Amino acid sequence: MATSQLLYLNQYFTTSLNVGGGIDNTQTTGIICTDVTGVDTAKPGKALLSYTDPLNIDNAEWIEYTSINGSKEFVGVTRGSSGYSAKAHNNGVVIAFPLDEDHINRLAAMFDSVGLDVAQIATPASPSSARNKLYFKTDGYPYQLNSSGVETALVNENGWLPANGTWTYASATTITVPSGAASKYRKGDRIRITQTTDKYFYVIGVADTLLTVTGGTEYTVANAAITNPLFSHGEPVDMPGYFSFTQSSWATSGTAFTNAPTTYLGRFYIQGNKCWIWYIFLTNATSGGTGIFRVTLTANLIPNRVDMSCGNALNVSSTANTGIIYISNTNEFSIQKYDATAIAGNNAYVTCSMWYMF
Fold first, then answer.
1. Is 268:302 a contact under the CB 8 Å cutoff?
2. pTM tops 0.70
3. Rounded alpha-carbon distances, angstroms, from residue 268 to 32, 76, 187, 240, 302
4. What is the pLDDT of residues 251-302, one digit of tens each?
5. What is the pLDDT of residue 114?
6. Where residue 1 falls among pLDDT bands split at 50, 70, 90?
7. Which residues pair with 350 in a beta bridge?
8. Which of 109, 119, 236, 309 has the fewest CB atoms below 10 angstroms from its CB?
């Protein structure tokens, strides 16, 4: 793998050595030239000392340097480059900046079968309009920088992919994205955005330029700038294992609750276009409710169902009644015994779980 510095080639130009008494074959400092017009003095390159045409290889010597300072002195000099031995040179000999094999061979070596040898750098200046810069940073990952100064990691070891393009706030549960989203994203995708801190969401709806998302009670989209948008079709390492939901109100098909139940735990997990929910609630010590229990959830936390799936419900009190849970309306669960009677009386825990499609 190439490890040598790439070199800049200057437009054909000659100058002369300006060192009284010349230089010996070991000197690496104090090598000064008369003129540097047309030479990019800030960049590394090569110079040919004692240049003649035709070239006399017994007298000539290639040197490599990292820059030329304000005193026209070569800095970071390596003597005897490109197979030429270091030699003494008289004051006034010609110095040229022609093409050398290392200008080409080092570039070719970067693309050899061993791999591309690229420097790790800090975030550079933004490129000009309609252009991008590609580079590696010290974390070892490749990045893209656009002309607006937006930097995007091109890979992520946690399983995220860069979304690219500009994402903007549309609402607490929707994000405006570049056109073509329907062919790039799908229900169940995971996304991560940065709004001061990282936020995580499931995608629960996809339109051409709009993603509908949920982060449960843990995350909402703020009316603020969105940076570093990432997405995944899989399970990134840092994606939360579940999100939470909460209740809004309770009702029954029979006698109304004297004191409504309270949510002990409400969690959901999305896989593709299927949502799994785990719900535990506690009836009040003086509940009073009969018939089918109906709980309305806080809006926009879980996706709306497209089927009539049902799951299991269990009264874990001493009576241990079993029953079912199903989504009876938008944001509404119905919980009952098998005969449509109350699954729990006073002061009882009921645990429910189910999968449904959305």
1. yes
2. no
3. 73, 62, 15, 11, 8
4. 999 999 999 999 999 999 999 999 999 999 999 999 999 999 999 999 999 9
5. 64
6. very low
7. 281, 315
8. 119
CA dihedral 329→332→335→336, nearest 10 degrees, is -40
Per-residue model confidence (pLDDT) at position 319: 66
* Residue range 118-131, pLDDT digits in tens: 788 999 999 989 89
Paired tokens of 133 = 């810069």
Name the DSSP class of 182. Answer: G
Instruction: Tell the residue number behind the tokens 């929910």, with chain if given.
Output: 277
User: What is the DSSP secondary-structure string of 197-254?
Assistant: EEEEEEEEEE-SSEEEEEBTTTB---SS--EEEEEESS--TTS-S-EE--EEEEEESS
Query: What's the rounded Cα separation, in Å, for the pair 25 and 137?
Result: 39
For 220, the token pair is: 């909402």
Strand partners, 266: 279
CA distance 343 to 339: 9
**How many CB atoms sit inside 10 A of residue 80's CB?**
14
CA–CA dist 210, 133 (Å, integer): 28
| Averaged pLDDT for residues 113-121 | 75
Residue 67 DSSP SS3: strand
Per-residue model confidence (pLDDT) at position 117: 73
Domains in the chain and their CATH numbers? 1-117 (no CATH), 156-232 (2.40.30), 243-357 (2.60.90)
How confident is the model at residue 276, as a pLDDT? 96
Eight-class DSSP state of 8: P
For residue 53, count other CB atoms closer than 10 A to its CB. Answer: 9
- Length, in residues, of the chain: 358
Nearest to 80 by CA among 46, 127, 36: 46
- Kindly state the tokens that stand for 276: 């799994």
Q: Which residue has the higher pLDDT, 75 or 327?
A: 75
